[in-house]
Amino acid sequence: MPAPSARPLRPAIFVDRDGVLIEHRDDYILEPAHIKVYQESIAACLRITLESPYALVVVTNQSAIGRGILTMEQAEALNQGALKPYEEAGVRIDGAYMCPHRPDENCDCRKPQPGMLRRAAAELGLDLKRSFLVGDNLSDMGAARAAGAKGVMVRTGLGSRHLRWAGFDGLVADDLADAVARILSGEWS
Fold this sequence. Notes:
Elements: E1 12-15, H1 39-51, E2 55-61, H2 72-88, E3 95-99, H3 115-124, E4 132-135, H4 138-147, E5 150-154, H5 159-166, E6 171-173, H6 176-185
GO biological process, one term: carbohydrate metabolic process
Main location: cytoplasm
Cofactor: Mg(2+); Zn(2+)
């Protein structure tokens, strides 16, 4: 009897949290009042849920944990608070991954390392080669490249600053809504 065929891998749209789903702060998000959701990002994520074959996966560096500023439990509660308006609007978030390490710990999960993307791919059955990572930081673009996904830099959050500093020549969108529209149209296939 032949072995059952493996379930086909899905592509994903990975999104950074701060600067893409919620407003970036130059200091840490330490309490729920610091969370300011981009309304246009909710609509964009709803399009992913309702109109596409893509999984939606959040990947975020949160070094405040490793620095002792927040506990893992506090950070997870803040992350859930940031994602709650999305879920209440009907967005299906297939996974949320958080790196708690400081930059000097040299872990494999802190972006620009690809660990969170690879872990999500293994756990959720994702095809990284057909996936995108939308972020506002050069570290997001590095993680996408290292994982074999396409990186999309948005101008929200730190994006405009990073685009000026680095002369970035990859895929660029105004915000998550623009990125999702272009991904779903096949423009960046």
